[in-house]
Amino acid sequence: MMAEEPRWRRRKEDRPGDICAAALQVFAEKGFAGARIEEIARRAGLSKGTLYLYFPTKEAVFRAVVRDAVAPNIEVIRQTVLASDQPFDELVRMLLPRVAEIITAVPLGAVLKMVVGESRNFPELAKVWHDDVVLKAVTILSDAIENAQDRGEVRPGDSRIHAFSLVGPMLLGVLWRETFTPVGAAEIDLPAIARQHAETVLGGLSIAEKAG
Amino acid sequence: MMAEEPRWRRRKEDRPGDICAAALQVFAEKGFAGARIEEIARRAGLSKGTLYLYFPTKEAVFRAVVRDAVAPNIEVIRQTVLASDQPFDELVRMLLPRVAEIITAVPLGAVLKMVVGESRNFPELAKVWHDDVVLKAVTILSDAIENAQDRGEVRPGDSRIHAFSLVGPMLLGVLWRETFTPVGAAEIDLPAIARQHAETVLGGLSIAEKAG
Amino acid sequence: MMAEEPRWRRRKEDRPGDICAAALQVFAEKGFAGARIEEIARRAGLSKGTLYLYFPTKEAVFRAVVRDAVAPNIEVIRQTVLASDQPFDELVRMLLPRVAEIITAVPLGAVLKMVVGESRNFPELAKVWHDDVVLKAVTILSDAIENAQDRGEVRPGDSRIHAFSLVGPMLLGVLWRETFTPVGAAEIDLPAIARQHAETVLGGLSIAEKAG
Amino acid sequence: MMAEEPRWRRRKEDRPGDICAAALQVFAEKGFAGARIEEIARRAGLSKGTLYLYFPTKEAVFRAVVRDAVAPNIEVIRQTVLASDQPFDELVRMLLPRVAEIITAVPLGAVLKMVVGESRNFPELAKVWHDDVVLKAVTILSDAIENAQDRGEVRPGDSRIHAFSLVGPMLLGVLWRETFTPVGAAEIDLPAIARQHAETVLGGLSIAEKAG
DNA sequence: AATGAATGAGGATTCATTCAT
DNA sequence: CATGAATGAATCCTCATTCAT
């Protein structure tokens, strides 16, 4: 326990972060329209009026939540991929479990659900996510794939579709967990999916292994 | 076009279908909470009050839309899989493009988005989809996979995760198309994904090919 | 049983009466605003549209119901009172049970409730009831009382208040029955009230008895 | 009057009372269904939305109005009756004018009208009124009557019907005033009714007087 | 800065009334 | 005459946003 930090002493510079964290929970549970500003405020430990000192509108809170979930994670992926000059199969065997870890640690699934669900109401958010997260991630992957193709490690084919083949099952797992596990579906073991799918997909992508 | 259709004629039987079709559009665009009954009614070519002759609440319309999207499609998958006593790789080469076709023909992507986006607000719909669509589809697939494993056609491993490996990229493609294409992302060629991913994933699942 | 009268052969001249009878039930149960035209039509055995062939508005139906309940009953009272040249105490001993009978036979209580409950929304109905029913009844009574006072049969005092003393308990009984018996209150035996109250009130009104 | 009262000040505690007072007026005028929340709010000096900070539904407001009219008044009656060890005729001569006073001072007539008019739509309110107001009042009275009968002061007979004989005319007067006076009927002088009816009914109920 | 009472625009739902058949 | 599908005005209620304290 921390030394009895009085509620009113919470440093104001933490507020936006607190609000975003609370809002993420609520938006993920209720969707944008179903979320109530008052509940976000309550979970952030402040009053409705105070929340409006930090964000001008509910939409602004939503945008902040979705944008904030962008930056930290994409960088991790980039580092992981770029730093590696190892063979493609090694990269994949490391990358997929890493993605599973990240997805489990941060509420990426919840945000993804929000982006998918509200993409028509907030097209500019879908755009930000596309441009700054998804496209970047796919590009990093497909670049790596093309390099591996050039090196003869990966079978020919559209590198972007190969990227879908790599990460699609992981995404499916995340959405499954967010959507169906709360209503009684079996638990999803993301790391297990990562490990087994890595082997499955590599079996097909790695020409070397087959040729052997 | 018919010549000067009267403002309304007795077509009670067509109404529910018209309403569901219009509602699917609007719900897919705006989400449940963002959809306005009046707009659904207008797109269905009738007035607000008339819609309420056929559905008691907005929720009832939503449920009808989501439930109606269930029945017709799952059966197609089952027929495709069960009817085949062909080798596993043939099945997959036929199945994935078939799925791509279905997804393209009917608005399954839109409904899927709705189910994912509103699963917390309508858990019983998520449950129906899980029980009647997703679980059935996965079970059909994993049964086929287990049979193929028994016959030595497919490498060992959790059959459900193998099923994820099979269809995950297709689902990712659908959601991508629903979410990002409207905001400027590249078009998604589902049949191309189906063809290429079939080869990719089979390369790994088919022990025979490797052994050869 | 009558010889199978087909529904569609119901003579149209009966319709207004059928509608009023059905409407009386529904208005008494739900009040004016709570009553639905469709339910009135259904109970009258016809469709909503058909009802509008006989009455232009819901208000018109309500007015007809309340007015129709006026005529038949006030006349009975008048006859009973005027026809009697018997002593006052005989009159009362006959009149109160007669009122109890009428009230029990026709749904006067229900209409009374409606008049009381909707008097502010339909002041002209309250006026009709006041002018044509209540005031007449009171006048008939107070005239009889004044005559009896002149004959030395009834103690002095405001004749209208004496009339209240005569009929008040009966009215209380009717409203009690309409209001509280449906929610579990004891049954009200109107004839018993009539008999006992007649003796009670006469004991006071009849100077002769006391003087003797 | 206070000088220039600010548009609003913190007066959360006064609100429910203000709202109930305004609602009583409006419900009495229009009935439950005819009353508009916005008008209640306006008469209470606040906006529609503010009213909903204090009551969750229109029904809740109605219930509060009716229930609030219960408590204060029944106690007065009980005290009046219980405190008296005077002869029965003295009690009645004191009680009826007391009832007339109460009815005149508080809007009991309006509430009674509401209870009668809406008893079918709000049976639980009719029950509360029956159990907590009417039955108690009647029981208090009939107990007093039975005691008086035991002492030989009151003629035999069903004590509850005797109670009706006592208070029926007063109730009739109240409802008359609520219903017919607004449409042009003569004013009702409740105290006069109380005084004259007390003498009238006692003349009959008091054996002593007659025997003498 | 913080609060929370107050506001009112917005949207779901009802139901009297109309009218094509 | 009879029907019942269709309409839309009316009203309850919600909740993002404001603002006096």
Automatic annotation (TrEMBL), chains A, B, C, D:
Residues 13-73 form the HTH tetR-type domain. One of its GO terms (molecular function) is DNA-binding transcription factor activity. Keywords: DNA-binding, Transcription, Transcription regulation. It comes from the Bacteria. It holds the Pfam family TetR_N. InterPro entries: Homeodomain-like_sf (IPR009057), HTH-type_TetR-like_transc_reg (IPR050109), HTH_TetR (IPR001647), Tet_transcr_reg_TetR-rel_C_sf (IPR036271), TetR_C_Proteobacteria (IPR039536). The keyword Lyase does not apply. Residues 36-55 bind DNA. SUPFAM superfamilies: Homeodomain-like, Tetracyclin repressor-like, C-terminal domain. This is TetR family transcriptional regulator.
